[in-house]
Amino acid sequence: MQIVRTRENLCFIHDKAIAHAISTTMDELEEQYQEAYQATLYGWFVVCECEQDLTDPFTDLTFSLAEKLHAGEVEFVEKKQDWYEAYIMLNNNEGILVYVPNMIFEQYQLNVI
Q1: What pTM value is reported for the model?
Q2: Which residues are CB-neighbours of 100 under 8 A, at least 6 positions away?
Q3: Rounded Cα–Cα distance for residues 81 and 89 (Å)
Q4: Contact between residue 64 and residue 56 where contact means Cβ atoms under 8 Å apart
């Protein structure tokens, strides 16, 4: 599991298409709010790299993506060409956008509500 809270974290993402998608989202947030991206204000990103990343709790949190999906506590799940994106709100403005490669998502057979 890779956590992305800064642009510097993007270099650790193996899937360059996902890294580019995250960078683009950061750019859009900066343009929209006219200030530098800040994870604590706008949310952060998680990239799942193996099936276990779906069931392990997120760093510094007490829940996993699988738990939130099974409970129906996700804002949205969207299938992209090579991955799924799931968004989980943490508070009024901060959330987690989770990227799960198709193979991992489909192997685990997550229920999308």
Answers
A1: 0.89
A2: 48, 53, 54, 65, 83, 84, 85, 86
A3: 24
A4: yes
